[in-house]
Design goal:
This protein is of the alpha/beta class. It has 17 helices and nine strands. A nine-stranded mixed sheet has the order 3-2-4-5-1-6-7-8-9, sandwiched between helices.
């Protein structure tokens, strides 16, 4: 790699036409040595409508390397970016040196934020529309082929027949938000979403902010085994009650796969951070991400107001989904305003729900289903293992056959499935 003095000289000498000047998007501060020469070129063009001569540049700035005049501009521009990124990375690291000994987790979190900002800043993700490019036709053909295979789905298969019936699953770059009151079953639905994807061969990262991995794994066993044709009781697994050990061993061997990654702790300033999640996604490259309890995820903006942090979190997750081309599903709790467990909570009944709804491509609310024939004293217990009402409050990819649907909710046996023909009436 050529020295930055030489590359900066090449940049300055090559800014002798409008095309190169438009291609150079950097400022005087981005130069390490020859920023004044760059400013001279700009001022000369603004004042006289033309570029200064090489002789004039060499006379006014004798430290410029005149041999760099013959360097190709595209090469010089790429090298300039590399040098600039190197300097900024070093600066980001040096800023955390003192903090490393005091609070290494905080230093790591800050460094990840700084490095991500640098990566985004110099990521060449803006391209001109090319009407002659047939790549998109090839991509369409691939999507058509995928729809003709299996369940005919594009994207990751979902837990909902209502969505799957459209031929579109969880699509790359989508943020899917699911919310409900406590005890309604958000974790179970998150586990089912992950198990559904894994059962179809999609590499999935399941992140829990509330439950240890052992508890999550037991729920995965119950749900995934049901999908695979087995039948185990969550209560039996949890309490050590008798089960068919041979069947359980058979299932565990059949499900021995690296397709599901489970994480119950991420190092960060407050235990679980957006930056750490981003690091995990980039490291493990999953095809689907599920975050159970997103309200416990922290950002690096602890000094900002709570609503600002929430906006940073939700839009940060959406940006992560877009940047990694990965669908991300998150669950969160409704506030105390959603006092009725038999009514789907509204966006304004979710903490900072406005930001969540705005950032999300899909928004799903869930509640229990009441049964008038059951005594009030036993109503809650009855609802716990019967049915759930699911309301699709936002679906950016188009129209769905229905806005609400019902799900079978026998979670003890992992029986979680949509009932498209059920209308909410009759006995359970």
């Amino acid at each position: 790699m050529a020295s930055f003095e030489y590359i900066e000289s090449a940049i300055v000498f090559n800014l002798d036409n409008k095309t190169n000047l438009r291609s150079f998007k950097h400022t005087q501060k981005d130069f390490a040595v020859h920023g004044d020469a760059y400013k001279f070129v700009l001022n000369h063009f603004d004042k006289y409508g033309e570029f200064p001569s090489i002789e004039s540049l060499a006379e006014n700035f004798p430290t410029l390397d005149k041999t760099a005049n013959s360097v190709n501009f595209e090469y010089a521009l790429e090298e300039f970016k590399n040098h600039l990124m190197q300097r900024k990375v070093r600066q980001a690291v040096n800023q955390q040196v003192n903090l490393i000994s005091e609070n290494p987790k905080k230093a790591i979190s800050n460094l990840m934020v700084g490095l991500t900002d640098i990566e985004v800043l110099y990521d060449e993700d803006v391209q001109a529309y090319d009407k002659g490019d047939t790549t998109r036709l090839t991509e369409w053909r691939e999507r058509t082929e995928r729809r003709q295979m299996g369940d005919g789905l594009m994207g990751v298969p979902t837990s909902f027949k209502t969505i799957n019936s459209t031929g579109v699953g969880w699509m790359p770059g989508e943020l899917i938000a699911m919310f409900a009151r406590p005890t309604i079953g958000k974790t179970w639905l998150c586990v089912h979403a992950a198990a559904t994807a894994v059962s179809q061969g999609f590499r999935t990262l399941l992140i829990s902010t509330e439950m240890p991995k052992t508890a999550i794994n037991m729920r995965v066993d119950v749900v995934l085994s049901k999908i695979m044709g087995y039948n185990f009781s969550h209560k039996a697994l949890r309490h050590g009650e008798p089960i068919d050990e041979e069947e359980y061993e058979k299932f565990l061997k059949e499900s021995d796969t690296e397709s599901l990654l489970v994480c119950d702790h991420i190092s960060g300033q407050m235990g679980i951070s957006l930056e750490s999640i981003a690091g995990l996604v980039r490291k493990h490259n999953p095809e689907f991400v599920v975050i159970d309890g997103v309200y416990l995820v922290a950002t690096n903006d602890s000094k900002k107001a709570a609503w600002e942090q929430s906006h940073a979190l939700f839009y940060g997750l959406k940006n992560l989904a877009t940047a990694t081309n990965t669908p991300i599903m998150v669950s969160t709790q409704a506030t105390r305003d959603a006092s009725n467990m038999f009514t789907p909570p509204r966006a304004d009944q979710v903490a900072f729900g406005d930001a969540l709804i705005r950032a999300a491509d899909v928004a799903i609310a869930m509640c229990a289903v009441a049964n008038d024939s059951v005594e009030a004293s036993s109503l809650m217990q009855k609802a716990a293992d019967t049915k759930r009402l699911v309301q699709f409050q936002k679906y950016r990819d188009g129209e769905l056959p229905r806005d609400t649907t019902y799900m079978e909710w026998s979670v003890n046996n992992g029986d979680i499935k949509e009932l498209p023909d059920y209308d909410g009436g009759g006995d359970f």
